Amino acid sequence: MLGCVGDALERLAAGLSAAELHFYLHCREALLKRRRALENDVVEARAARDIRAASFRQARQQREVIETLRKRQFELYRQLEARRHQRQVDDLFLLRRERVQRS
Known about the structure:
Low-confidence stretches: none
Helix content: over 70%
Radius of gyration: 40 Å
Number of domains: 1
Distance between the termini: 113 Å
Mean pLDDT: 89
């Protein structure tokens, strides 16, 4: 604020009228208030962004966990199906061998 007073005195000495000086100071104060408000908005926006980023990271981690579980479940299913198929092939082989031996 001290710089503002010095600036005002310089303007007054340069021939600025008191009304113009008052208007200048009023505009300057309004701009400073607006700047502080905008800086607060930036701080709030960054905080909101950080919250959303954390939420996004958590959702991504949950998706990755589900994807990993899905892959494991599919691999287990594939193994069980392969074993079932092999049992069917073995049973068919034994049936044919038994039929050949009877003949």
